[in-house]
Amino acid sequence: MSPTPVPRQTPLFAEHLALAARMVDFGGWSLPVSYGSQIEEHHAVRRDAGMFDVSHMLNVDVTGSQARAYLRYLLANDVERLSEPGKALYSCMLNPQGGVVDDLIAYLLTPEHYRLVVNAASADKDLVWMARVAQAGGYDVVIEPRRELAMIAVQGPSARERLAQARPGLGALARALRPFAAEATAGTLVARTGYTGEDGVEIVLPAAEAAPLWRDLLAAGVVPCGLGARDTLRIEAGLNLYGQDMDELTQPAEAGLAWTVSDHDPQRDFVGRAALAFGLKWQLLGVRLLDRGVMRAHMPVHIGAGQGMITSGTMSPTVGTSIGFARVPESVAPGDRVEVEIRGRRLPAVACRLPFVRHGRLLEGAGP
Questions:
Q1: What is the pLDDT of residue 3?
Q2: Is the peptide bond before 355 cis (omega within 30 degrees of 0)?
Q3: DSSP 8-state code for residue 367
Q4: Distances from the Cα of 26 to the Cαs of 55, 92, 352, in angstroms?
């Protein structure tokens, strides 16, 4: 038998242990699931400010004279829409069948330099796929994984204020940023992006500088948060998790991501475009349980004579009941009653539009 691989450690591993975090293996990385109360961490982000170690995610620089042309072909969204340095867009990277290889954020740094941030569990296969597409198309680009970088997400309505208390220089940058924009300074990238449905920033910096920043944020009152709170926050915010809510067999529209496919330029070809012309089998809707219980991934969803499946589910601290995402037939509409099968029992639920929560506010139709 081959030995079990040892999970990789982020530059903040020792900081997590010092805070008595409960560590788990997540996609081959040792990461904190919580530092005590997952619910308190969740509420800290909704009401004030929390921080997450997201250094397991991979920053990838794409440079060269054909960087823009290459990314216009590689991604379903169009980097041509990035009109000035610092602008960012969210996109899926598709295979020829229109399935999602990964979802990512792309930043324009200069006309010949882009930064992609890809998911940790998909990073290795992403690099192989990106190189294959570049080689097949003969694109003059360099694809460089920046594994020497760390990444901290500071999220919540007070996130930028807390960052300014901890590091006035970075705080000033963050306060000046518009949503989905970034600014680079002295080897650090500050982006007004996140994965929680709240305001906040993601800070990319050299690994050696991550722990001092983490400690400064802690001293400024930012609450450390783990994977547990990250999951409840992103589900409330209607944000997909790759490998769970979409994968290489799922087209963007089947995962509620049709808006990430840019077709404003009918002359632009991109990987998977031809396959997107065919009909869809599924749609992704929110589901709110009307009985006691907790929905989890892979639970069956019964709709009359048809059936769907929960892709993500949790107990929502903000909504006060169990919520989730369901892959269901296109005939299902928000407001329709469905049944979710939990341990052999069919419990009543209602289909909802996503998201459930935006900027700390429960949206109409999401509550009990």
A1: 66
A2: yes
A3: -
A4: 12, 22, 29
